Structures are given as structure tokens and as C-alpha cells.
Amino acid sequence: MSPMPELLMGILLVIANLVLFLALAPFFDGIVRRVMARVQSRQGPPLAQSYYDLLKLLGKENIDSTGILPFRLAPLVAFASMLCVIAILPVAGRATALTPYADAISLVYLLTLGGVAVLLGAFASKNIYALIGASREMTTMIMVEPILFMILMMGVLKTGSLDLTAVIYGTPSAGFGWPGVVMIVVSLFALQAFVARQPFDIAEAEQELLGGPFIEYSGPNYALFKYYMMLKQMFYAYLPIAMFVPLIHSGYFIADLAVQMLLTALVFLLIGLLSATHPRYRIDQAIRYFAVLFVIALCAIGAAVIF
Amino acid sequence: MRKELEAKLIARLRDDVVCVEKTDERTIFVDVKRAGFREATQIICGVGARYLCSVGYDNIDRDGTLAMVHTFALDDRNQFVCCRTAAPVDDPVIESITPDLPSAGWSEREVTDLLGLRFAGHPKPKKLVLADDWPEGIYPLRKDVPHDLVPQGAEDVAYQLDEAPPGTKIVPVGPFHPSLHEPEHFAVYVDGETIKGCDYRGFMTHRGIEKLCQTQVSYNEVPFIAERICGICGSVHATAFSQAVESAAGLVIPRRAEFIRTLMLEIERIHSNLLWLGVAGHLIGFDTVFMQAWRVREQIMWLCERLTGNRKTYGMILVGGVRRDITPEIAQDILTVVKKIEEELMVIYRAVEKDTSIHKRTKGVGTITRQQAIDWNLIGPVARARGVDIDARRDHPYAAYDEVKFEVPVLDSCDVWATLVVRVVETFEAIKIIRQCLDKMPGGEIFVEMKDKIPAQRHAITVVEAPRGESVHYVITGEENRPERWRVRAPTFTNLQAVPLMLLDEQFADFPIVMGSIDPCFSCTDRVAVVDLQTGNASSVSKAELDAMSRKHQERVKK
């Protein structure tokens, strides 16, 4: 193929990625809500409820309770950083036009930037609940981001490359060996923390902090944060599927993608079940939990280096 | 006991003792002069009495004094001791007993607010009940103040919170906060996430029920108002009031009515404990427990609707008996429903019992020692979870509790988990009691009319074990077929005072569940909105329409 159509294809893939994530993330959120409802003997909201919620919030008034710039910028930064992550993500093994300009480290950077934007908004809102929520969010980030990094590191070690497509899709499932199996377990146990759901919805903690970092946000700004959270959850639910479940290589990109999205939906089913069967942990309990995961992940990386 | 107490009092106080009398089998009244009041309460505590509450009343018309009663219970002998004194209205100061009995703090502050009686040596003589902008010098419970007085409000008057310990930040919890179910304000002083103290400002929806019942209605109407003190333990208050009046009047009610009261109280306990279990689940962020417990609870509300016409606020208790009889069909209905609840609750309990993540959030949380629980006079499941073996149903039997057998669960792990277990076990015990009631209930009348006029100036005290602990009602009979003074002490009044102690050095994340573990009493009225599921149109219902709908539904239920 000549370079021009490839570039065009790459650009199309960037757009396709964004459309896919933006379109599916609220649906997956709907799945979690429905699963939780069914475990709780409730009928639950319609699967499209999260789209309605976003639309409703977008139509409401933005209340700027502080009048300072960081407060207004934070939701935009968070949302934009997540869009960047999606734009560079090689979905179903296909690199987009932007993937070559990024690597595993910039992926982690961009994800962290989203988290930092949440903190920024929380600190700017000068609300004591937001501050407590932000300090919890910060602690969680410090503990959880290294685990994410080590999951990606596994791919880096196996392929010897930082290129995203290689890191995520480059290792055949047999190639991971037992450290890879340990890492799968770690990523399952860290799943609820990545998606910030029970037992790790500590920063938002409705019953104590009334939404924590987001307490002062309303209307479109809050919609952006909500959308950001949904996109982030979809990314984290998709990541273990992409890394540890081999593509079916049917020859059709669409079929590969459909299977992976189906598997992602199953991960959301799992998220819903886990959320419905756990109380919220306290931050001190969560830290101990993360610390154990961290050590295990580190051992797995060590083992992958040695063997 | 009366003689023993009299001898001890006279030995120490000599001329300060006016009289020690026993008005009925279980009530001893001690009258002392003002100077010996505090010492008299110390002597009473010394014989093993447990402080209940204090009652102030206006005696200005009679002898120009404001009177004060401290009430105590002797749990091992089924007796109550009421220690009375009076202070002239122009020098209304009495020595405080709060330094000896910390849980008397609120009772005394309440009397100061409502009657203008002051307590020398009170460690925290701040406003408690009245609004911050209530004018000085107007004491609502005095007889010269009309019940509908609306004084001029004032701007810029705010409650002064206690000073925060150095290095702490104040987190306001309330007046509106999802973990509280009624308006009340906690200022929680936190260092990082650790709670270093808290101040409480509540009584924001003080409705003046006592004043209303002392001035506007008659004995027979009060039970229905009493029932509305609490949205959950209504029958408890109605029963307690009725028993106090019956005791003052010397009225003996039919045995069948006593059994039906017992039955209603236990149905209410099942309802309340299931409700609490759900709320507790919600407060630790475990909504599945919340939803499942309330699903089980729903059946008891349907049952009560068939039984009394209301899902809650049953209106069953009258002075002199109960309003409706239990027919054999409804008895069968009750048995079927409680059996189903027993099975379904067992499923939830088994799941909760083994859930390590619930243990993580409840074990070792809200810990206070048994001695602290005794010092603060904690009551109900909160006390029983701290190894304090008290239960008014067993210690001061009323209604038909002397004829039924039940266990009183007492645990000694002293934390929130223990209160959960105590409440679940008590629900199973309540089901046992209901079965025994239906089994042993004698035939006969369910109501006896009060024929003679109740003499004025009789004092009576009763306790009824609510799901949250004992409710104390103190009644002084009055002239116009209504109580002259009626004091209600709900269990939360006592338990809430010890919450700052339970919170100390806990994590802020545990605030909701520690607070929730005492099951703070709330009552609420809600607007009704009807949503048409097909069209999605929402419409509100006016009061008249709602009445009509309720009546129509009632007709259907009767058929």
C-alpha cells in the first residue's frame, strides 16, 4: 500500500476509535447499573439511562461556584486527556495514525493527567468534602498507577519495545508464561480500583463525601466528568481483554473488534457483580490492599525479567 | 427497698429528706430539699440504680416553684426511683448532676431551655432545644406561655460551635447529609481522616408535642399524637403513654389487649430492625444489603396494612386497650408472613455473617468499653452490644411480656458488628414472641373504658423497650382531662450523647456507620408524586385526592 491511503486509514481509525468509545461507554455503564439492580432484586434503569443522564446534564445550567479558571478548565482537561488516550490506542490490534507518535509511557502520562485534572477541579472548588475526596483520590492514584504501569511493563519486557501496538498485542498468549498469569490475576483484582467502583469508590463515597471531588460540579461540567469516568472505565475494562485475550484473527477487522467488545461487556458484567457484592473499603484498608497487589505485580515483573 | 433507701438517705442528708414513699409496687418517690438533691441522687446511684432521665415541671401557680425530677431504674428489682425537688421561681438554681452522670447533660439543658431552671456546675450549659434566635426569658413549657406563641425571629444569631482541637479541620455533617435522615448538625473535627472530636446541634424540628398535649387535647387523643413522635417506633410511644396514664388512674386493661399490644410492639421491632439492617448496609456503601433487607421488610408493611389499615403508624393503641381485635384469619396471616420473613432474613444473615468485607467495615469500629457504656447509661442494642445486660421487656415487664419467653442477646465485642448481630438476633426473638402471643392469647374484651375521672397531681413513670432501647414516659396527671406534664425520653436522646465518644479516633469514613449504629430515630413526611409508566407524565396529588385514594384502597383491602 502506498503511504497516503495508509495515513487516511490511520486517521479514519482515530475517528472510529473515538466514535466507538464515546458511543459504547454509556451503554457499558448501563450494563453495570442493570446488573447491580438485578442482584438487588430491582428492575433497574433502562440500558440507555446513562445516555439520558448525560443529555440531561448537558442541558442544565453550569454553576460556577468559585469563579476561578482551574475550576472551569478541569473537566475539559480530564475529558480531553481521555480522548487522547483513546486516539492513540490501537483498538483490536490496528494502530491509528497517532499511535506511532506515542508509546506505553505517554499512555500512562495521559491517564494520569486525567486524574490530575480531577484533583485540580477538586482543589479549586474549595469544598471540604471535595478536599477529602481529592486526598483520597490522590492516595489511590499513587498506589494504583504503578500497578497499571507494571501490567504494561509486562508487554514491554516480552517484546522489548515501548511501541503501544507491540506492548498490548505483541505477545502471544503462550509467551507470557506464569508471570503473565499472575499479572492477569493482579489486573482482575485491581479492576474495581481502576474503574473506581465498589469497594474502591472511596473518593466519591456518597454516604460520607457526597460525591467527593465532584460535589461542586453541575450541568455540562459535571457531564464532562461523568463522561470522562465512563470512558476511563471502558478503557480499563478493555485493557486486560486487549492484552491477555488473543485476537481471533478472523481476517475481518470488524469481527475481531466485535468479539473484543463482547468480551469487554463481560468484564462490565463482572464489574457490576463485584460492585453489588462489596461494601466500600476505608482508605486505610484500600491502601493495604493495593500494597499487596503492588508487591505481587513487582514480583511478577521480576520473574519475567529473570526467566 | 424503700426502707433501705430511706435509712440511707436520712443517715446522710437528715433534715433535707422530706419524704420517701412508695406509690405502687414498682415506683418509689423521694422528695428532698434543694440543698441535698445532688447527694440524694448519688445515694440512689449507690444502691445500684441506673439513671433514666430528668423531668422539669412548672409549679408556679401552686407554690411558686419550678420542680425537677431525676428518674432511676433498679433493673434487678423491677423498681423505679424518682427523686424530686423544687426551686423557687425567683432563684431557679439547682445543683447539676451532670458531673456525676454525663447522660443527664441533655436532660438538664432541656429543662434550662424550656423552663428556665438553671443548673450550677453544668459542664456545658449551652442551648439545646430552642432555636438560636429564641428570645431570652420566654420559657415555652411554663404555663403562662401559650402553646401557639410565635416570638419575633432575629437575624444573625448562630450557634457557637465548640472550639476545634488544634490542628484539626471542621467537616460539617448536616443539617442535610445523606447519612443522616433528619435535620441535625454535627461539626466533626478531623485531623487528616481521623476524627478528633465533634459538637452536635440538633432539635431543629422540635415540634412542641409535649406542650400541645398538655394544653390542647385530652388523654384519649394523646396516644395518636404520641405515635407520631417517631415514624418507626410509634406504637412504643403510644403504649408507654397509655401505660403511664393507666398506672396513674389505677386502670387494669383486659389481658387480651395486653397480648395485642405485645404483638404490635414485636411486629414493630421486626420492621425497625429490618429497616436498620438496610440502612446500615447503605451506610457502608453496600446497597445490596440495603435493597434485600427492605424487600423482606416490605412484607411486614403489607401485613400491617391488612392488620391495622396503615403500613406504619398503626393507631392500634388506646388508653384502656387496643383499637382492633386479632381474628383467627389475621392470626394465620401473621404466622405465614413471619415465617417467610424468618426464612428470608436467615438467608441475608448467613450471607452477612460470613462476608469478610462487611467484617472489615464493622468489627472494631465505634468501640467503647463496657464501663463507658455504663457510665453514659447506654440502652438498647447499643448497650447490649457492649456487654450491658439490660432489656426493659425482661427487667420491667409490661403488657404480656411476663408470659412469653425470649432470649436477650448480649455481646461483648463492643463494636458496630455486635450491634448488627444483636439486632438480627432480636428480630428472630421477636418472631418467637409473636408466635407465643398468638398461641397464648386469651379471649375476651380488648378495651375497657375509663369511667372515673383521673385525679390530678398523680405521678407515673413507665418504660417500654423500643427497637432502639427503652423509651421512658413520665406523666403528671392534670385537671382538665389531660396531662399536666408529659415527658417523653426517646432512646436516641440517651444514645446520641455518647456518639462523640464512639467517634473519637475513628476514621471519618466510619462516621456514617458509627452514627447509624445507634439507629438514630427519624420521622419524615414526604410529598406524593405519581408517575404514569406508560407516558412518563408526572402529576402531583392533592391532599383530598390522596385521602380519596387511600379510602378506596382501604375498601379493597377490607374485602
TrEMBL record, chain A:
Transmembrane feature ranges: 6-28, 73-92, 104-125, 146-170, 176-195, 235-255, 261-277, 289-306
Main location: membrane
Naturally occurring in which organism (per UniProt): Chitiniphilus eburneus
GO cellular component: plasma membrane
Lineage: Bacteria, Pseudomonadati, Pseudomonadota, Betaproteobacteria, Neisseriales
Domain of life: Bacteria
PROSITE patterns: COMPLEX1_ND1_2 (PS00668)
InterPro entries the UniProt entry points to: ComplexI_Subunit1 (IPR052561), NADH_UbQ_OxRdtase_su1/FPO (IPR001694), NADH_UbQ_OxRdtase_su1_CS (IPR018086)
Protein name, per record: NADH-quinone oxidoreductase subunit H
Membrane topology field: Multi-pass membrane protein
Keyword entries, A-Z: Membrane, Transmembrane, Transmembrane helix
Subcellular location: Membrane
The keyword Transmembrane helix appears for this protein: yes
